[in-house]
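Risk register update: the risk of archive-format incompatibility is retired. Evidence:
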Amino acid sequence: MSEHRAEIDWKRTTSDFSYETYNRDHEWTFDAGITLRASAAPEYFGSKSCLDPEKAFVASLSSCHMLTFLAVASSKNLVVDSYHDAAVGHLEKNAEGRLCITRVILRPRVVFGGERTPGPDEIRELHDKAHHHCLIANSVKTDVTVEPQ
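Archived output:
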């Protein structure tokens, strides 16, 4: 149905190439010329001033859930005034002993406007529908939990 592209560029800037010292900073370039500075997580000798893949993964799940939630709410004629999520991903060893983001917890806080404010049960249903239609969540093995705030 569609293609989604990213270009990743890295170049060695160190005199040696040992694991402890080679540079991790690189660029992610997307459509429309959007470029982000990326690196490894600081725990893996990356730069704190750059986005790391682990955070990008968590943000991707959170963003997709939010966008799907907004579409679901709109289809129910609900008005969303604001949406905030304090998402947390857990890097752990999986059953095979490999490091991966095993769990992501989304903690969305949604403020509704308009004439009708859904109750807690309807909000849970909206999040459940959003979760099951979120293409990023449907693309990964990670356990994604939604805990509406």
